[in-house]
Amino acid sequence: MMNWPEKVTIKEVGPRDGLQNEKVIIPAQSKMEWIDQLSDTGLSYIEVTSFVHPKWIPQLSDAALVAKGIKRKPGITYAALVPNQRGLESALAANIDDISVFMSSSETHNLKNINKSISDTFPILKDVIRTAANSGKTVRGYVSTVFGCPYEGEVSTDQVFRVCDQLFEYGIDEVSLGDTIGVASPRQVALFLEQAVKRYDMSQIALHFHDTRGMALANILESLNYGIDTFDSSLGGLGGCPYAPGASGNVATDDLVHMLHKMGIHTGINPEKLMKAAAMVQSFLEKPLPSHQMAVNNAQ
C-alpha cells in the first residue's frame, strides 16, 4: 500500500562522505566553490566536512578552512562529523550548525573504524553530544552497518536498537541508520522498519543507503511506505567507507531527486542547478561520476 510523504528532506553528504574515499585531493578553495554551488540548489542541509585527525582522512584535513570559508545561505544547515571533544571544539570554532557523531552497530567494524569497542565509544560520544547540545547545536548520530557488517555479516536488530537507544538517551536529535556496505534489500528494510516504527518517532529517523549492489533506490522506496521522509545522499553517487572493503558510493542525490520528483514528492531542490554542481565536482575529480543522471548528462 502506498503511503508516501508529500515532501522528503534530502541531506547532502557529498562534501564529507562523498569525498572521504577519493584519492585525488581537492583544494580547499575548490571545495568551497562546490559547497557554495550546492547552497544554491535548494538543499536545506549540507554536510560540509569532518573534524577527524588529518591522518585518518587526508582529504578532509582542511576542515576548519573550508567550514569558515563557505558562503552561508540562510535556511541551510551546515553540518560536520566529529569524533571526540577535540574535534567538537574545532567544529564549534568554525560555527558548524549541526554536529554529527558516529559509531557502528557491529563490534568489529567499530574497532576498525574508531579503534575502540562499542562500550568504550559510548562515554566519548556522551560528552560530545551533551557539550554540543549545551552549546546550542543540534546533534545527529550516525549508526553504521545497520543492515550488515563486512566482518560479522548480519547485525541483529536488537543490537542496532541498543546503540540507538543509548544515543537518544544522551540527547541526539536524529539518528541516521546506515547500510554501510549496500547489502540491504527492500524486504530486510521492511522487516527492520516494522519494528522501528513501534519504538521510535519516525521524524527522528533518517536512512543512509549505499548503492553498492544497485538496491539503494528500491530500499528508499520501501522506506517511504513506513513514514521515513529524511534520506542522506551524495551528489553523483560519490562515497564509500574507508573501513568497509567494497563499500562503493552513496545513493546519488541526483538519481534520488529524479525518482522523487517523478513520484510527485516535493524536495525543494532544483534539478538543473543540482546537475551544474555535479558537473563541477566531476571536473575537479577528472573522472565520470557513477550516478545514472550523470551518465545521461555526460552523454549529451
Q: How is the main sheet built?
A: 8 strands, parallel
CATH fold node name: TIM Barrel
| Overall tally of domains | 1
Our Rg estimate from Cα atoms comes to: 18 Å
Provide the CATH top-level class.
Answer: Alpha Beta
The share of residues in extended strands comes to 5-15%
**Strand pairing plus helix content: what structural class?**
alpha/beta
What series of H and E elements makes up the topology?
Answer: EHHEHEHEHHEHEHEHEHHH
Determine the mean pLDDT.
Answer: 95
Q: How many separate helices?
A: 12
The parts where pLDDT drops under 50 for at least 5 residues are: none
Regarding quaternary structure, how should these chains be classified? Answer: single chain
Helix content: 40-55%
Overall geometry comes to globular
Number of strands: 8
> Ends: how far apart?
37 Å
Which architecture name does CATH use?
Answer: Alpha-Beta Barrel
| Widest sheet: strand ordering | 1-8-7-6-5-4-3-2
What would you say this structure looks like, in words?
There is one protein chain. By secondary structure, the protein is an alpha/beta fold. The chain has a single domain (9-299), classed as Aldolase class I (TIM Barrel, Alpha-Beta Barrel), CATH 3.20.20. Helices cover 42% and strands 15% of the residues. The chain is built from twelve helices and eight strands. It has helices spanning 14-18, 28-38, 63-69, 85-93, 107-114, 118-134, 157-170, 186-199, 216-224, 253-262, 271-285, 292-299, and strands at 9-12, 45-50, 77-81, 98-104, 138-144, 174-179, 205-209, 230-233. An eight-stranded parallel beta sheet has the order 1-8-7-6-5-4-3-2. α4 (85-93) links the parallel β3 (77-81) and β4 (98-104). α2 (28-38) runs antiparallel to α11 (271-285) and α8 runs parallel beside α9 (216-224). It is globular. The N and C termini lie far apart (37 Å).
